[in-house]
Write a structure and sequence with these properties.
By secondary structure, the chain is α+β, with helices and mostly antiparallel strands. It has four helices and 18 strands.
């Protein structure tokens, strides 16, 4: 049940798992219509769920229906030594290992035992309290600014005023920043006024990989903020559930 793709697409599939966990432990599901990668950070402040349709022009999947766990950073490191040529992945079974082939490179990896991997929540969020849509570049810039001040960022949704506000404060010296997006920079806003203060520890690296011009959806499901972006191709979705401060996603 091989998967065929190019180097760039494979790196994009693996990136969420590489950035959200230091051990890069990730679950990968492959079916006839999509590839899905899921992982939760060690501190349980953010979960990632990335799906890529098999109809993507740069992806070819033979009839497959399998699920396995691998440390995706090991694969990502090997890709740096790979020529920029088509990649074939032979997915693991009960009797075989994960195998990557690209040009003259062949890399074999034993999958992880699922009994000893971290828990992936299958809970479906309730209807959002409020939601808005903005450019990713604005969100990423706010995360960088908040990172200069501390570990958290406040996200406020004010539909009655057509404003989304991103802010942070340093609790030690009272330094602070805030950025209020006017209606002209908001693609959509609805629901009731909502506020969440989220941990940005794992977001620092994740936001760097997403195009600044991409439109993102922010949905308030207290005590979580759900961030979703269609990236990098039509039909592909990266969804992050980000915990409220001192909370967890499970």
């Amino acid at each position: 049940m091989p998967v065929r793709t190019d180097l760039r697409t494979l790196k994009q599939i693996l990136q969420p798992g590489v950035t959200v966990r230091s051990d890069s432990e990730s679950r990968i599901d492959v079916t006839h219509d999509k590839i899905r990668l899921q992982a939760v950070s060690e501190d349980k402040t953010v979960s990632v769920d990335y799906t890529l349709p098999t109809s993507c022009p740069t992806l070819s999947v033979d009839d497959a229906d399998t699920s396995f766990w691998i440390p995706v950073e090991r694969v990502n490191r090997m890709l740096r030594a790979s020529p920029d040529s088509p990649v074939t992945l032979k997915l693991p079974t009960e009797t075989s290992k994960f195998l990557l082939e690209s040009g003259c490179l062949s890399y074999r990896l034993s999958p992880l035992n699922s009994r000893f991997t971290h828990r992936i929540s299958e809970d479906t969020p309730n209807e959002p309290q409020g939601e808005g849509s903005i450019r990713h570049g604005v969100f990423a810039r706010a995360v960088r600014a908040a990172d200069l001040l501390g570990e958290d960022m406040k996200v406020q949704l004010l539909p009655s005023r057509s404003i989304i506000k991103l802010s942070a404060t340093n609790n030690y010296n009272d330094d602070a920043f805030s950025y209020s997006l006017p209606a002209s920079q908001i693609n959509r806003i609805s629901g009731s006024a909502s506020t969440l203060t989220i941990s940005i520890d794992r977001l620092r690296d994740i936001v760097k990989a997403i195009p600044r011009a991409a439109r993102v959806s922010l949905k308030f499901h207290p005590p979580h903020l759900t961030y979703r972006v269609k990236y990098p191709v039509t039909g592909a979705n990266l969804t992050m559930r980000i915990a409220n401060r001192r909370g967890t996603v499970q």
